[in-house]
Amino acid sequence: MSFTPSAAFRYTLMRLGIFVGSFLVIWGLVYFRVLPSGLGSSNLFWVMLLALVISAPLSWIVLRKQRDALAVEVAEKVDRAKERLAANQSQEDGV
């Protein structure tokens, strides 16, 4: 029995990976004083916010194929659910 992860699982893991990679790069740049650090104890928040701002458009560009696969998977599930609902409604009408 082989496990093939769903498109949603793969997309989520890849998006998280891009965020973590961005976070580590930005943390390194702040650590070596290439980028300014936050005020007081806000440094972690600053790095996380900057990583989010950078990783969002990067994910949008890099994960296009995975996002399309996710959309197809969701559309198929919605179609199956609609078919089951229609079948259940026709059974109720026949009673």
UniProtKB/TrEMBL annotation:
Task: List the Pfam families hit by this protein, alphabetically.
Answer: DUF4229 (PF14012)
Q: Membrane among the record's keywords?
A: yes
Record keywords, A-Z: Membrane, Transmembrane, Transmembrane helix
TM segment ranges: 12-32, 44-63
Protein name (database record): DUF4229 domain-containing protein
Can you name the source organism?
Streptomyces rugosispiralis
